[in-house]
Amino acid sequence: MKAKRSSRNISIALVCVILGLALSWQFQSIRNNAKVMTLENQKKDDLVVKILNEQKNNENLRAKLNELQTQLSKFENARGNSDENLKLLSDEIQKLKTVAGLTNVKGRGVVVTFSKDDALSVEDDDLLFVLNELRATDAQALAINDQRIIDTSEVRGAGGYINVNGRHVLPPYVIKAIVDPDDAVNALNMVGGVFEQIKVFVDVSVQKSDNVEIPPIGEELIKTDKLKIVENDK
């Protein structure tokens, strides 16, 4: 009898162990599935953000086209009026100077700050990574430590320093952008995006602002001596 009872107890114990393992595996499987579903939902959200950004870019391009067509009509209508022509040309010059980065500008945007404690770990690629993401979200003006960034600006490491427009900039590194704040923050913080990759090495943060001010670039940094105007054939 004792042998049978002992055998029965062992069988019950084995069944309990097997049931425990099965429940543990099932619980782990549920957790893994939940993680996968969460990641898929995040990827869907990121895709929605990208689609909305592209739609906004298309709308901006249409608005710019309409603006240029309106300007063309104004120039054509003002051919016989020298004063009106002069004002239109003056307004156009001011607009071109703004686009070229030769004027002070301000507007809503974001401020990205790299921690001073991680200054030695910050590389030029980290700054370029953030700049490119902000450009992709339709930033209209950019600066690093109040050095205006234009198409010909250089951002590169040099002997333990980072040069912007040929000048040393010292930490903490601060990037300012006039851009839609919500779009910029979402783009920088998306899963697998800029911040997720940079934060492995350095501490970086972004703040929205209703009043971002960006200074002009020095005119001496805009060089056109190697450029020649191509005349249109008529």
- Number of distinct helices: 5
User: For the record, what is the CATH homologous superfamily label of the largest domain?
Assistant: Protein of unknown function DUF881
Q: Largest sheet at a glance?
A: 5 strands, antiparallel
Distance between the first and last residues' Cα: 114 Å
Q: Output the CATH topology of the largest domain.
A: Alpha-Beta Plaits
State the domain count. 2
Unreliable stretches: 2-10
* Topology, number of strands: 8
Query: Taking strands numbered 1, 2, ... along the chain, how are they ordered across the largest sheet?
Result: 3-2-7-1-8
Estimated radius of gyration: 29 Å
The first-level CATH class name of the largest domain: Alpha Beta
Query: Which H/E pattern describes the elements?
Result: HHEHEEEEEEHHE
In short:
This is Division initiation protein. By secondary structure, the protein is of the alpha+beta class.
Features:
234 residues; globular; five-stranded antiparallel sheet; 5 helices; alpha+beta; Alpha-Beta Plaits; disordered N terminus
Describe the structure.
The chain is an alpha+beta fold and 234 residues long. The protein folds into two domains: 1-100, no CATH class; 105-217, Alpha-Beta Plaits, CATH 3.30.70. It contains five helices and eight strands; from the N terminus they run ααβαββββββααβ. It has a five-stranded antiparallel β-sheet with strand order 3-2-7-1-8, with helices on one face. Strands 4-5-6 form a three-stranded antiparallel β-sheet, covered by helices on one side. Strand 2 (141-144) and strand 3 (147-149) form a beta hairpin. The longest helix has 76 residues, at 2-77. The protein is globular. Mean pLDDT is 78; it is low at 2-10. Pfam families: DUF881. Belongs to the UPF0749 family.
